[in-house]
Amino acid sequence: MTKDATIQTRLFDWTLVIVLLLISFLCLLPLWYTLAVSLSEKSAASAGQVWLWPVGFNWNSYKQIMNDSSFFHSFWISIQRVVLGASITMIITTMMAYPLSRSARDFRLRNALMWILVFTLLFNGGLIPWYMTIKALGLYNTIWALVLGGGVPVFNVILIVNYFRNLPKELDEAALVDGAGPWRMLFTLYVPLAVPVLATVTLFTIVYHWNEFFHGLVLTSGEEHYPLQTYIQQLVVVIDTANMTEDQYKRLNELSNQTLNAAKIFIAMIPVLLVYPFLQRFFIHGITLGSVKE
Amino acid sequence: MRNTGFTKHYYIMLLPGFIWLLLINIIPMFGIVIAFEDFNPGKGFFHSEWIGLENFEYMFSLNDTAVIFSNTLTIAVMKIAGNLIVPLIFAIMLNELRFAVMKRWIQTVVYLPHFLSWVILSGILLDIFSYTGPVNTLLKLFDIDPVLFFARADLFPFIVVGSDVWKEFGFNTIIYLAALTGINPSLYEAASIDGAARLRRIWHVTLPGLRTTIVLLAVLSLGNVLNAGFDQIFNLYNPMLYSTGDIIDTWVYREGLLNMQYGLATAVGLLKSVISFVLIVVSYALASKFANYRIF
């Protein structure tokens, strides 16, 4: 290779590094900015002086939240929802996935049931019938509306099914010879082998339940039942702008309690930031293997 | 395989899941009869007056209908294009990166926004694009007058699409990166022996290696052309932005649950569901024909 070519390669490499780092930086920037605002002086934040570093550093917003019982009440509802939602969903979907991963020869109804599942993935009754159904089932205003209201996460079931199907068939035969029944096969053989996909789906489920705000909004009667995201949504996002002039809208922006809201937003991000690194190493593996069928 | 006694256990395993499926996923499907009724919650599904296609006729006579369908389509198609192309470019760049540790760190960082909710991100966006926010401060440096972004219907679709691509591009690289590991390294060696420079190798080896994946993703995204992203728009829009930002899902929510126009809202939702259903079936058929794709 000529000298020119190596210089060119180096230049290419370093440009690439810089561009990629800039883009990554851009992904973190809004989060960092929110943290900076939450730690700034109120007046500095509303005057738009905060950029990447807190102006007039203080913990006031966080201290204020410590005394905000409705924030913690909603936080607690979200925790309950995540714990119940993730554990129940994982148990039910794993149990569903095992029989559906059998061949049609082993389990005659397998294909028919699979098509029913896929159909529910493709078609739904829409918002109003769904809402009426939840109400008719008596779930309205209960934690179960939040835990079960989203329905079966069919896509996750299919991911697990496909992963199970890609495990070597010889394992089955060996376990059968040892006299293992279906329950033992599932819990002592398949579950331990499917850790990557199960961890991935667990991550998705936890994040889904933590992030979901709409069910909290429409399936509960008010603030005392709101999960954290709904609470924040009401606080930060919902502004009754109907019939508002541009000037009023501007003033409203200036009046809103930016630093406090930023602190609440930041706290609401923390659980996701905490679980993410632990489960991250699984999910690439989990998704790509689960979505490919031999 | 001998499993004569197993089937009944299979049913027990499936039971909780299918009960859940029946109650929350399947029963609402029958609720679409509301679309053909003058629905009165007091009377219920069975006793409300049957009015045939009246809700649909009314729907087509409304100006809103054309607006929300075209807004939905515009935003969704722009999102699909952005979410196919940006991750593709990013994945190719990552693939060219030679420092493995840095590559892992970058992946960790760019996947992160995918896991944050639109409530959180909308709160942040409303702040960043506010009248005194950092974007306007930045514009001031270039002598541009502050813009009231969330009062500008003309800019709204671009903010929506841009922020969605920002949130999802990292996560969407996963599938491309997986496909890239499937390209035979000897092809790159052969290309460099032939004297191909980096960019030429990308063009002649990497891109053709990703062709199937790109086509597959494009075909499968067909089912999303009426999904403009409820969570995002619901948390970003306001009445000043309805002309370009109101989409089918937000409209159905307002008309149905806030204004209690149950029949009309269900009819609009049903039209969306049916069109999406047809598109998804077509896209799966195409995908299985051309890329041998199977969902299970």
Automatic annotation (TrEMBL), chain A:
Cellular-component GO terms for this entry: plasma membrane
Keywords: Cell membrane, Membrane, Sugar transport, Transmembrane, Transmembrane helix, Transport
Membrane topology: Multi-pass membrane protein
Family under the similarity heading: Belongs to the binding-protein-dependent transport system permease family.
Domain ABC transmembrane type-1: 75-279
The name this protein goes by in its record: Multiple sugar transport system permease protein/putative aldouronate transport system permease protein
Gene Ontology terms describing biological process: transmembrane transport
Keyword Transmembrane helix: yes
Subcellular location: Cell membrane
Signal peptide coordinates: none
Sequence intervals crossing the membrane: 12-33, 75-100, 112-131, 143-164, 185-210, 262-279
UniProtKB/TrEMBL annotation, chain B:
Keywords: Cell membrane, Membrane, Transmembrane, Transmembrane helix, Transport
GO CC annotations on file: plasma membrane
Family note: Belongs to the binding-protein-dependent transport system permease family.
Transmembrane segments: 12-36, 68-94, 115-133, 169-188, 209-230, 262-287
Provenance organism: Paenibacillus phyllosphaerae
Coiled-coil regions listed in the entry: none
Keyword Manganese included in the entry's annotation: no
Pfam families: BPD_transp_1 (PF00528)
A Gene Ontology biological process term: transmembrane transport
Classification lineage: Bacteria, Bacillati, Bacillota, Bacilli, Bacillales
Protein's UniProt name: Putative aldouronate transport system permease protein
CDD domains associated with the record: TM_PBP2 (cd06261)
Lipid metabolism listed as a keyword: no
Membrane topology (UniProt): Multi-pass membrane protein
Main location as per UniProt: membrane
Subcellular location: Cell membrane
Top-level taxon of the source organism: Bacteria
InterPro entries in the cross-refs: MetI-like (IPR000515), MetI-like_sf (IPR035906), UgpAE/MalFG_permease (IPR050809)
Stretches assigned to the ABC transmembrane type-1 domain: 69-283
